[in-house]
Amino acid sequence: EGLAVRARARLLDSSGHVAVIVDDITESRRVEAVRRDFVANISHELKTPVGALHVLAEAVAAACEDPVAVRRFASRMTHESTRLARLVQEIIDLSRLQGADPLPNLRPMRASAVLTEAVDRTRLAAQAQAISVAVIGDGDLPVCGDEGQLVTAVANLLDNAISYSPRGTRVVLGVRRSGETVEISVADEGIGIAEKDLERVFERFYRADPARSRATGGTGLGLAIVKHIATNHGGVVSVWSAEGAGSTFTLRLPLFTGDDDDAMTDGSDE
Ligand code: ADP
Question: Start and end of every Histidine kinase domain (predicted)?
């Protein structure tokens, strides 16, 4: 590998592109370090629920004379195994999003298609918390993307808004146009995020309050997934928050104008 890099450097050297190859090497080192960190984090994150399941199984075996205790342990086993399954699924999702073909089903659609499906997917969680979700703005705005991914992104933001808010509060899902951008925002009246955590919440496995995240079945991957989906679509995700007052996450996607890819229009005269 070293040889190949050196050969390439020489090649580029003669055409005066040394800086490019230097950047390339630093970037590939950085990518490798991030990958190693990710694997270490995954192992750690998987060990927690697996360890809990092990201890709970032993507790069930030891408490078989006490049906109330057995039921309590069994219910915690259900919680841990659900979280474990979600963690594995999200790790797979994340690696797909970073794969060779990150946008397999690209097509134009109206924002409302994404929002409606995301609201549907989080309806039960909202009901359980007596949280009302209001959808406002211009749902006709067109975006181009992978519908499944965009629904996942908005549903993850809604899920968080619901998880980190007190019962009976309101979540507003808005969509509007700003220049050539479609802004999809999820605003809650929840616990908010401290300033020191704000810029880290999009990192994989970063949680402002690990105990709370675990209790709500969180994996710490939801926002990392949203960020990758935004990037794959040429967009960005950002957050505004005030502790104790609430948070607003905004997903900005390019407005679909219809003339940038023939494959996505059906030969209309655009
Ligand atoms: P998790 O599975 O822990 O929710 P995420 O990646 O979705 O993981 O979010 C990372 C962290 O960001 C959460 O653990 C939480 O501390 C914080 N967070 C995310 N969304 C919100 C929100 N709407 N209100 C308050 N905190 C939030």
Answer: 41-257
